[in-house]
Specification:
Largest interface: A-B, 35 and 45 residues
Number of strands of chain B: 0
Shape of chain A: flat
Helix content of chain A: 40-55%
Strand content of chain B: under 5%
Shape of chain B: globular
Radius of gyration of chain A: 32 Å
Oligomer: heterodimer
Helix content of chain B: over 70%
Radius of gyration of chain B: 19 Å
Number of helices of chain B: 11
Order of helices and strands of chain B: HHHHHHHHHHH
Chain lengths: ~350, ~190
């Protein structure tokens, strides 16, 4: 490169030269082969750079990462709440010890009032199904989560005085008193609650409060207009249910698992590496919910499950079945690779 | 349907979401993730990270937003700022990046690979892109960041300077050197 003005090609390319300077350079470049080549090469480099490909992430994987992110962010928010410093704890303990010693020394059974410490945020763990949506609404001594869709497994630490743990449901709310439970909702209503430890109060709009103890579960009626029905498990205390159920309550027949639950169960088996069971659950899902959008994922994941079980022939034919049914599906490329 | 509900609610801007996140509203983080995850991931992969490392850094970047949101200036555009956070997270993950670079280098020194091995390599089919990626991997980290931000992601020099926290002239200098080295590397490959 010999032309002393060729550096201006880059300045023009980056928009750093304008007006008369730019026009002057462009006139010069029209008759200068060095500068013209410089401009051409810069444009070519930019074109290749802009065309650099980047693989897109899979929607399911993205949803999983989103849930993990929100869970981590929530845990971090809980951890970052102001705490009583170590120094203050030492001072507090020292004053309690001095008061106790004084009471003993004076020979009177004195009482030491417990220090007034503001209750912190309740502790809990949440495990959400891949398609589930939720967020934190209130983050004080009253912790309130809003569940929008999907299946959630929660474990809430023992609540102190002044602490509350509430779950906003699409059609009401649920209050917890130190427990482990699973809740499932869709966009418009609650579908079911199962309590494995502790006590849960469900308050649905237009209905009375329903208390669920350990081992009890509640399922939404198939007709949303009907009253909610409490179905105690064999081990549960019927007294709790009878006391809490609305007068019109009656025993319900077992309700078929919702699409969300069925899909989450199949995905859980898949993630756990139990591919045989996962495939059986995928097949059941496909039969029970043929119109569900997730059938596309199901068909593809069946092929993957089959491949991971070592049945490559079966995996190939399932992948081809997927391609036949979804020729421009989201998993097309991966299915093509399996089907080869 | 009421008159109010006949109109769809206006979406919050990125800046509003970052302000909400700074106030502790985690639902804003979910919305920001939905809007920008793909772009940030794409940027990270173009910086040379493998898909799995990019996923880790994307997670770390959005988690960092929770801490960094109070420092965001709502008068400035959000995307360059977000790219800046992602860039710093890449630097923090230097060890992971070094692993990725070693993988790329090992792969780059092999002769032309005819058979595509896995999903990452599927995207390397285009010869020009492959050569550019190889040349990018050989660039120093800071030059690579500026080149990708300005040339690939389309940030202006001023935006890139704000994103990386360096003077504007530093951006132009790094960009100039990056281009020169890339062109030299590409022409070397072209010559027999």
């Amino acid at each position: 490169m010999s032309c002393t003005r060729s550096w201006q090609a880059e300045a023009v390319h980056d928009g750093r030269l304008s007006g008369a300077d730019r026009a002057a350079f462009e006139r010069h470049a029209a008759s200068c082969s060095d500068c013209a080549r410089e401009a051409r090469e810069l444009a070519a480099l930019a074109e290749v750079a802009r065309a650099l490909p980047a693989p897109e992430s899979e929607p399911l994987a993205r949803l999983r990462r989103r849930n993990v992110l929100l869970q981590l962010a929530n845990e971090r928010a809980v951890r970052s709440l102001p705490r009583v410093s170590a120094g203050r704890w030492v001072a507090l303990l020292a004053s309690v010890a001095v008061a106790t010693l004084l009471a003993l020394f004076l020979g009177r059974p004195g009482t030491v009032a417990p220090p007034e410490v503001a209750p912190g945020v309740p502790t809990y763990r949440i495990s959400a199904a891949p398609e589930a949506e939720w967020h934190v609404v209130e983050h004080t001594a009253t912790l309130r989560l809003r569940t929008l869709r999907g299946r959630f497994e929660l474990s809430v630490g023992k609540l102190q005085r002044g602490q509350r743990f509430l779950l906003d449901l699409p059609d009401g709310e649920l209050e917890v008193r130190g427990t482990r439970f699973v809740v499932e909702v869709d966009r418009t209503r609650s579908l079911g609650v199962h309590v494995s430890e502790g006590l849960v109060a469900i308050r649905l709009r237009g209905r009375g409060e329903v208390m669920l103890g350990a081992g009890e579960h509640w399922k939404a009626p198939s007709d949303p207009e009907q009253s909610a029905v409490v179905s105690p498990a064999p081990s549960s205390s019927p007294a709790t249910v009878v006391r809490s159920a609305p007068p019109a309550a009656k025993a319900s027949a077992p309700v078929k698992a919702s699409a969300g639950t069925a899909f989450a169960d199949a995905m859980a088996a898949f993630s756990a590496g139990d591919y045989g069971r996962a495939e059986a659950l995928f097949v059941a899902f496909e039969r029970a919910h043929p119109g569900d959008a997730r059938v596309e994922d199901v068909l593809f994941l069946r092929a993957v499950a089959r491949a991971r079980r070592g049945d490559l022939g079966g995996a190939r034919s399932l992948a081809r079945a997927y391609l036949e049914r979804y020729p421009s599906g989201l998993r097309r490329k991966e299915a093509e690779r399996i089907g080869e | 349907m009421s008159a109010a509900s006949a109109w769809p609610a206006l979406k919050k801007t990125d800046s509003e979401l970052l302000v909400a996140l700074a106030a502790g509203k985690l639902e804003a983080l979910g919305e920001l993730f939905d809007r920008h995850e793909a772009a940030v991931r794409c940027y990270l992969i173009r910086l040379g990270l493998s898909a799995s490392d990019a996923d880790d850094v994307v997670q770390a970047t959005f988690l960092e937003l929770q801490r960094a949101a109070p420092r965001f200036d709502p008068e400035q555009p959000a995307r360059p700022w977000l790219m800046g956070v992602a860039t710093f997270m890449v630097r923090r993950h230097r060890r992971s990046l070094a692993r990725a670079a070693a993988r790329f280098a090992a792969w780059a020194t092999r002769p032309h690979q005819e058979r595509v091995q896995g999903p990452d390599e599927l995207f390397e089919r285009d010869e020009a892109s492959r050569r550019l990626r190889r040349a990018l991997t050989a660039l120093a980290q800071k030059k690579r960041e500026v080149f990708v931000l300005v040339t690939v992601e389309g940030l202006s020099g001023e935006e890139a300077a704000r994103a990386l926290g360096v003077p504007l002239n530093t951006i132009w200098t790094r960009l100039h050197h990056a281009r020169r080295e890339l062109r030299a590397a590409l022409s070397e490959e072209e010559s027999p």
